[in-house]
Amino acid sequence: MVKRRNGWIVPLAALAVPLFAAPALAAEEHAGGSVNYFMQFLRTGDAVGTTLIWFCLFTSIAVVSLIIQNLMHNRTVNFIPPDLSETLERLLAEKNYREAIELTAADTSPFGQAMRAALAEAPRGYQAMELAIEEAADAVGSKKVRGLVWLEVAGAAGPMIGLFGTVFGMILTFTELVAAGGSPKASALAGGIATSLVCTFWGLVVGIPGVISASIFKVQVEGLTVDVIVRAKSLIAGFRPGVTKKPAAAPAGAAKPAPSPA
Question: What is the dihedral of CA 219, 225, 229, 230, to 10 degrees?
Fold first, then answer.
């Protein structure tokens, strides 16, 4: 049985990582080397830009955690558990419908829900069972697609946050330019330019994987939903009108029937 357990824990734990990592990085900031180079991407010359950068960093970690979470959940074994599929195939072949209904009632996978809906419509006929499978699978697939909204929101919000930092940094740059009468020192413009570029960088870090992965997961969920429908329909093929079972093979050594006289 496949169950989704505490799906919010992974993103929450991921968001907590920078809170513990930031003090350690700050303590090593003046040590030189790669740590000092990395810290250049975590702050700018003003508090607003630095805040936007850290917000983008938190969002990027949440995007990574959501990607990992979807990679774990959107798998064939979770949509169509092999044990459930094989057991249902055996029970239906044995016409043990009661046990099959009880088995699907205790399962929460998309395949289990589709088969539960189909068996519930068995008294209405084969076409009703097919329709129930399609409706149940589509409902579960739509629910999982809607669950990708947070990944889409994070992927879309990241570039917007970065753009906000870009515009803010350009405003700082032109403000310094005006204050210096059109001839500012390069160091006076460096803070605003750094804010613009670093915020843009982190916005892209969030947006690119978020948007791409959300699109990939949508296609993946749609494909797995189709697999659920195909597998479920193959199991209820025996309910189709006019389907007859093949006659059992004659035991070895049994006498063949005599040919009818011409």
Answer: 50
Rounded CA separation 78/184 (Å): 61
Nearby residues of 72 by Cβ (< 8 Å), 6 or more positions away: none
Q: How many helices (H) and strands (E) does the chain have?
A: 10, 0
Question: Does residue 4 have a pLDDT over 50?
Answer: no
3-state secondary structure of 151: helix
114-116-118 Cα angle (round to 5)? 70
DSSP string, 14-26: HHHHHHHHHHHHH
Contact in structure between 118 and 111 (CB atoms under 8 Å) = no
Cβ(103)–Cβ(235) under 8 Å?
A: no
pTM as predicted: 0.69
User: Comparing C-alpha atoms, which of 146, 80, 75 is closest to residue 113?
Assistant: 80
Say if CB 67 and CB 209 are below 8 A apart.
yes
pLDDT at 212 over 60: yes
Closest C-alpha among 246, 242, 244, 245 to residue 126? 242
Query: Residue 97's Cα: distance from chain center in Å?
Result: 34
